[in-house]
Amino acid sequence: MAPAPGTPAAAAPPAWKACATTSYPRLQCAELSVPLDHDDPLGERITLALSRVPHTAKTFQGPLVVNPGGPGAGGRTMAGFVAASLPAKTAAQYDVIGFDPRGVGASKPALNCKPGYFAPVRPDSVPRDTRDERVNLARAASFARACGEKYGRLLPHISTTAAARDLDAIRQALGARQISYLGYSYGTYLGAVYARLFPDRVRRAVLDSVVDPRGVWYEANLAQDTAFDARHKAFAAWVARHDKAYKLGGDPAEVERRWYAMREALKRRPAGHTVGPAELEDTFLPGGYYNGYWPMLAEAFSAYANERDPAPLVAVYKALATRDASDENGYSVYAAVQCRDARWPKDWGTWYQDNWRTHAKAPFSTWNNAWYNAPCAFWPVEAASRIEVTNDALPPVLLFQATEDAATPFEGAVTARRELRGSRLVVEEDGGNHGVTLAGNACADGHLARYLDTGELPKDGGGQGQADAVCAARAEPEPAGTAARGSRAGTSVATLPATGGAALHGMLGHRG
Length: 512
Prior knowledge:
Layout: E1 17-18, E2 28-35, E3 45-53, E4 63-67, H1 76-85, H2 88-91, E5 95-100, H3 130-151, H4 160-173, E6 179-184, H5 186-197, E7 202-208, H6 218-241, H7 243-246, H8 252-268, H9 277-284, H10 286-289, H11 294-307, H12 311-320, H13 325-341, H14 348-361, H15 366-373, E8 397-402, H16 411-419, E9 424-429, H17 442-454, E10 469-472, H18 500-508
Parallel strand pairs: 4-5, 4-6, 6-7, 7-8, 8-9, 9-10
Antiparallel strand pairs: 1-2, 2-3, 3-5
Helix pairs in contact: 1-18, 4-5, 6-8, 6-15, 9-12, 11-12
């Protein structure tokens, strides 16, 4: 039977072509055309960039779609990483599918609202007076205005709901009745929204480092501030335990005092005319996501505080915190999605009170995070209502969460376990890294592989949001050597292993 007039033609299967990398030699790429507005399927169309590592086993369990989070993170490389990191017999049963979400990376069009927005040296994130506050407010408003001027027709359609509907378009193009899904960080919220919209199209779902669906997004950012301050204190305690290597003091409070003294000194004289207080926070924030960065951060801290040598600090800033065009693209989509997904306070007085209240107990990154999200106070597109993800129509979902995760605090996983009926929660006890599976924890990876292989879940651990299985956290890192000396720093991003935690955290990024 011919389709009714005005009905869009079914999407053609993706035309896969080799796009191998040294690390992922079997990676394939394709493009998929989808409506800009899914409620207007005959209107303007945009292009999603896809990737695939095809199955090789006789037993084929369908597509496993993967997402590294963000919002704004590109996901094509993620397919290669997941296929290479899963047990070979597990990966062989799936077509592992990655994609750059709408607006991101190789998907077209890609957003870059205001190139150079993060160029150093930025204003100090902690306002000393109303003048400082006005400077940062004007900066945030200029970003929102630039996004509206450049992408006004696109912004209403850059959201988690739109991305979830893109996921279903990918499913259709793959010819699959259902998909399995593995999402990290923001990708957990994307997966939960997809499951809410299309519960019968989910075969299996894994949500790792779980966004609290009740806090999208203003409250979630305030919760992050407290959690990141706790992780910064954990870093200071680790440095104190290794005082022999870093000579910054054997008392965590003394280490913290010296870190804030460094911040104050950089306010007066930015390191290398590049690293002021805001850039210092940007540099140390990745340590809140992944403790594998602690040795290089401690070396740079030691060199600056003990020897007044700024070179290692500038080097680590360039390695972990500088923003190129790809990062600017990611931030533009981050803002577009978060500002559109749910309502933010439009009265700056609310932001002012909430952030000063939080800063008083958690000063490490509260105001840095506030200005990162402040364009939402001026966003040119009306926000939607937050989606309730409560779901009793899904097959059982497997959740993973580290107890000390700062980017997605533990309570979010507890909430998700309660709201996704039949789900199970695997907890990495005392773990502080963002991203539990495929990062070197054999216990967690075993639960993941069994679920993907057979659908097996841990036994119900008692309900009420409690853990159903517990895995011990991996050991903390050891100092890499003596304190950094310019280009002879003992650890750099380049020397971190390209597998496990370092590889995963390189893809997850350091925001969202």
